[in-house]
Prior knowledge:
The structure holds 3 protein chains of 3 kinds. Chain A is 65% helix and 0% strand. Chain A is built from 14 helices and no strands. Chain A has helices spanning 2-18, 33-38, 51-55, 64-74, 76-94, 112-116, 150-185, 190-202, 205-215, 220-247, 250-257, 262-298, 310-318, 328-355. By secondary structure, chain A is mainly α. Chain C is mainly α. Chain C has helices spanning 2-16, 32-42, 48-60, 76-111, 116-130, 133-148, 160-189, 192-200, 204-230, 236-241, 250-256, 260-288. Chains in contact: A-B, A-C, B-C. Chains A and C meet through helix 1, helix 8, helix 9, helix 12 and helix 13 of A and helix 1, helix 5, helix 6, helix 7 and helix 11 of C.
Amino acid sequence: MAHTVQDAMAKKLEEGINGSASAQFSDKDDLTPEEIAALPPDDFVLVPYNEEEAERGGYSNYSYWGSTIRMFFKNKVAVAMLAIMGTMLLFTVIQPYLPNQYDPYTCNLITKEMIDEGLVPEKSIVGMPIKNLKPNRVFWFGTNANGQDLWAQIWQGSRNSLIIGFATALIEAVVGIAAGLLWGYVRWLDPIFTEIYNVLNNIPSTIILILVSYVLSPSMGSVIIALSITGWIGMARFIRTQVLIIRDRDYNLASRCLGTPTGRVVVKNLLPQMVSVIMLRMALAIPGGIGSEAFLAYIGLGLPLQTPSLGNLANNGRKLMSTPALRYQLLIPSAFLAVITICFYLVGNAFADAADPRNHV
Amino acid sequence: MKKYLALLLAAMMMLGCLAGCGDNDTNTPDDSQQGEQNNPQQPDDNTTDQPHVGPDGRTAAAEQVYRTVYSSELTSLNYLSDGQTYNLGVGANCIDPLVENDSYGNIVPCGATEWTSELEDYQNADGETVQGQKWTFKIRQGQKWYDNTGAEMGDVTAHDYVAALRYVCDATYDCANSYLVEGWVRGASERMEYTDALLAAESGPAKGSEVVDEENGNTQYVFDDDGTTVLRVLWNDDDTAVEGYEPMAVVNPEDVMVEATDDYTLVYHLEIPRAYFLTVMGFGCYWPAPAAMLETWGSSFGTDNTTMWFNGAYILETLQPQQQRTYVKNVNNWDADNIHIERIEQTYNAESSAVAPGLFTAGEIDYCDIDADLLTAWQADPATAELISPTRVTSDYSYFYTFNFEPRYDEEYGPENWVKAVNIEDFRQAVFHGLNRQLLYQVSYPNNYEDLIMNTISPANSYIYEGKDYVNYGDLAAITARDSFDEAAAVDYMKKAIPQMQEAGVTFPITFLVQYNGSSDWGSRNALLDQSMSALFNTDELKAMVGGNDVVKFVINNFGSQGFLAGTRRAGLYSIQECNWGSDFADPETWADPFVKGNSYNFFYDTTENLGMNRKTAETMALIEEYYRLVDEARAEVLDTDARYEKFAAAEAFLINHAILIPYGITGGGYQATKLNGFEGQYASYGQATSRYKGQWLYEEAMSEEMFYNQLAAWEQAMGQ
Amino acid sequence: MITIVIILFVLFAMLKVMPIEGYFSNFDKLSQAAIDRGLRELGVRDPLYVQVGRFVKNLFQGDLGISHRYMENKPIKDIIAPKVMVSLRFGVISMLVSLPLGMILGVIMALNKGGIFDKLGNAYIVVIQAVPNAIYFLLIQVYGAQLLHCSMLWREGQAITMILPILSLALPSISSYGMWLRRYMVDETNKDYIKLARAKGVPNATIWFRHVFRNSVVPMVQLIPGSLLMTISGSIYVESLYSIPGMGGLLVDVIKRQDNSMVHALTLIFAVLGILGLLLGDIAMTLVDPRISFSKKGGSR
């Protein structure tokens, strides 16, 4: 599903960049003669002729990035989401260094003090793991079946999931852009890339995902590779379309006539046109990657539970669903997963709107 | 309406039969009910007047339809060729073997009514006269084969057993359990070897164009110019050129020494005497299959329920893969009175681990497993606490830790250092006594781990000779009686070991590479192993002895489930590893099998030939020699069971006392919610007995933990007698 | 066609790296000879072109092959055929439900752009996309069954048990259809001809339904044949939860079991369906919109 969203957003930007849109006219300039007559004369000042001013022409201090950022900050929801996202990102990094944190991997054992304090049932045996303890003041999110602290596990999981998300997005961007530029700009490569695209597009992506994660033993690296193998082709095709549109424009023709090397045309003339699109696709690829990892976890080929990720934590919680007392182990990781996805989605969406020049007035 | 009729019919037949065989003393408990059942006071009741009440006080369900969900699909119903316990469950319920077990593991008649065995001499291939054994079975008469619709397909005769075994001994059909026939029945190995060669010759290149293939092996067999004789290709020493050919003797199906002397008499000729031969009947490769059926379907026999026939307690009426399986009672079975569950409905659900507990509480199914994860919550909730009971310990798989004597892993983990350490017995003893088995085992079995821990490799209650359990023979008795975990002893051994290790040039910390297959339970066990051992041995006192370094260091590696055993244990890529072995037949020899020469469990043998290296010290080699002497001696003792057990016990105790491996625990013992009573079913520590539904009732309510332990106590008491 | 052959080569090459242990159920106890024999029968050691050639040859004889591990020795078409029908049934019903609902959602959101309905609709879309299916499907099953007083599993012939799986299948599709339609309609309203129509004084309703809606539906129409065909592949989540014997999860299952012949057959089917879906989509589009034509016109790039 994440992919369809991504495509929809991409299409929207595509149209923005194509410049097919005409600037929106202000519709507030049609005052009636009566209104004009009623305007107070004090509001008007006679401006004397100034040669210097008259020379300036239609220059405005329009800046694409400045407008984009200004537009973005007008969207309050997106700003709030950005703040949440930023806080979470910061927290995943600093969480292990905060005081009183449990190690996510250690199976915490029952101590005498815990029984005395009433943290665990009275008849518990000292030295045995603290299994499935509900959220409480010591273990904020409770413990899992192995006595591991869920709070620490969730942050470790978010960290791993985000690493997977960022890494796949980055690989997708780098490989996808490089391939897309070649595909679009070097004409004789076109049939080859088109065939690769057809092949990759028509082998069900699950089969590739499964085969790769199956053949490589499960680890962060193998999951990232599995997700990137299918991910880059979408980006490449997108870039290729953009290149096809832009490459024959007059200024590129002029550049070529002036003897600018192809590489320079690509890097200086083409790429900047697409920066916002690429950033958007990356922003959406991150939750996409996290979601795909959750799918891999669901079919049993994701990260092992010893490398927590939001996907496998939620998946592990699924089988406890039938028991109301244990549902916290499903709901907490699911909530994290949802919040991260919604943040990236809304921020990405708002950014796409803000980056659309049609909306810059 | 049809269902009622069938029920009525079944009930009437039951009554008739009970009346008919009331003098049979196995039926005495039912005699009291017989009177009540004949009491026609409630004419509106269609079935029995008084429902059956089980030994645990539960009332039998009015409708004996047992419903479950499953997530793993059957891959084959071909019980002759398939080796998976799960698949064999179908055959176990649908095919009557020669003998079966009662609830206490005793062997009782089934497809055969009586049997005898006698020793016989025969000439082996080398012309020597050796002692073999002859088993003669009288086949039960009047039994029929049925297809999945219940249509009669002919009589069950001795010929069906002969045809089945010939099928198993044909390499074409690739039978997984043929190793339980080869080396047992005379002529089986020869027939396998010949058919194997025949197949290789058929699919390989022609004579004169043999292929040298380093990766897949050179061509081994070709046909002679006449196109029928199979020739073994003899290669020169460096495997580059063909030196000659050696014709192979033709071995026909008839040369497998199993015969039907008449329609109802079956004779097996064994290579060596095996007093426990009857126990191997629990495996599919010895079950009957009519020649007519095998001919009709050949290798596609048993692909689904329409390509096989049934003669057992149940008929697999429908089989819709990933949808549903339905078994119906075979009302014509000789033992139909003991088949209480009328119908078994198994519904596929890929998510059964997530969905089944909810289905059970909603009353939609009659059985589900309760994971260790769910257990505490279910026990804490009064609504569910009474629904769960432990599963029975079935003792068919034993778990133990092995030390790797020939590690072949990466230099970064210090295999040479490990070799030096593992050859020092005091070091092994330290680890042996330092393994906190209770802590580890309760990851999976939080409530009854104590019942599951074993001090020997062979499980208790498996081999009992004249009232004496094998685990109480010889030196095993002392081992059985104690717990190997002893922190003080472990530290003492380590103190003794450290100077020896320093002398041998061991550097500290000693790295333990421990692998697991990605399972969450196993991962937690390994994490606890690391935590507990490190806490035990990396104390300031011991660290001071090795110059301040840690003494031990654990590297826990998740290998993943794909190709796990091939990539870890068999390749020698571990320091210590949790391993298991399942028993194939009821003799302690089966538990010596994993440690034979050439094994991939601990490489505790002279590995020069197999691995091209042998880094064991003279001290270890002496242990190895002694161990194999003990095993060979025990194997040779074929007739006197008491002496045989004594000798196998000595060999097993030797391994444990020298800390070559660490016994650990046994399978079973999880928790379940069930409306059956497993103690009413068949029991054996090998084969398929526990998969059979015959003899079990379906009750209205779930079994509680209290009922379970009462039943267990009663069962153990009965076993002890 | 060439694409399919390349796909087959890539697939066979990928399957070559699967560990041989996985082709056997009890590798541990098998002799080397038995392993060799098994591998020979499977043909996994043959060179690629031989494997692909054999597969294509059998294909032309109408033979998809025989399953080795999933259901031993059973013809693949016999395994797949009933499953396809089941998945198709659920897929088509859920599409019949979700397509109109999704369109209504999209239209309401577009008409109400920036308003409360648009915001609510967006919230729905965002939540459905963000919360993993595997989790809210489970919630639907547990609470839905209690609410409807019906079985948690699908039972053939009990229509009430179809409600929850169909609902689960429809929820994400509705959001996806709604999102796309809104997107297309909003784009369409920004076009000059609509502005012109407004300026001319064409009634609002006519603008929306004559121009905006009809033009926005065209790209949706292109997607429909593809999604319809792809319902054959089933939904792994829904079918697993409700015991629906369809195609969902079959691919995952056979890859895990290393039933290569099943993997080959399924990949081929899905690839063909994918290509066919695109083709039919284009045709459907030309049918709906006479302006679109795929025959080469002079002057096209």
